Amino acid sequence: MCEKVVGRNEPCPCGSGKKYKKCCESKETISVEEVQAEELERILQNFYDEYPHRKDVPAYLELVNSWKARLNGQLQEEMIEAIVLDEFFFHHRTDIWQSYLHKQQKKQLRPSVQRVLSQWQQPRVFIGQVVDVDENYLTVDMILDGEQIRLRRESDKPVPVGVHLYCFILPDGSGIENQYLAISSLIFFPADHGQVFEQIASQFKEEPSKTKEQFFKDHAVECWEKLAANGYEGEEFSNFEVGVITHFMDFLDEHERQSEKLLDLVEDYLVEQQPNARKDVAIAAGAVRFGNDFGYFDLLEMTVKEMAEWFGVSPSSMNKYYKEMMAYAGKE
Description:
- Strand 4 and strand 5 form a beta hairpin.
- A five-stranded mixed β-barrel has the order 1-2-3-5-4.
- Helix 2 crosses helix 3 (77-92) and helix 3 (77-92) packs across helix 4 (94-105).
- It contains 13 helices and six strands.
- It is of the alpha+beta class and 332 residues long.
- The two termini are 45 Å apart.
- The longest helix has 19 residues, at 32-50.
């Protein structure tokens, strides 16, 4: 069936109410969905740019200070402030968010955006485990009851199946059931902390009278205390992955080399491939040899044996991960 051509004087299919010639005709390469997504993103960003207002800052700071006292320096202050800002808006002072939405709905927005805003009255917190990843969405299971959602990806950075994440969510505007976007900071947790989320889920079962949202509101700071007690400090990588990166950077520093491009590649390789090495240093050695052979930094005149000896691993161990890096980067 042929696709219907929209006349220049017909209503624009994006739902703005304007004629096509005065709306999306000049944006033929941009889909209606992209235009809507940009408008929704702008509404979200403007909220964080404008709020909290001065009169609400003392209440926000009071909540921040109560969290800082509980966490006792175990998380960076900037991270605590960001987490508490969302708690303040979406658990403690929902009137601020809802008042902002009401003001937005009074504006001349396209009907499709108005419909989405009507579904945005109550953001909710979601703590879940990633069970599948595709090009545009993460499939995530809620830790408390197994509720499954599809969460829009925020970047092309690889996300491994099995990690946990935290954010406040809203319907993504697609109209498809169970598809959401993260309104707040999307925080991923290395696999080291899986037991903490099991503890939180067990605690929820002991309080059957509470809804998921009420449970998360009542135990918000306690959840972060459990993570901090388990060694979480805001890092994106597991202890093993941190070890790889540390050994890798130590070598480059000592030999006065640097390569942000190679570091990004190593980080993506660790997250996406989840290499199963007995020693983190073997992966670091393989990454350095890969970088040296493929021009990621100024050439080092070292033999394979000398490089392996610097890391204290065998050449065969180093070469295993060298080959894995080659395959991952498409250099074979």
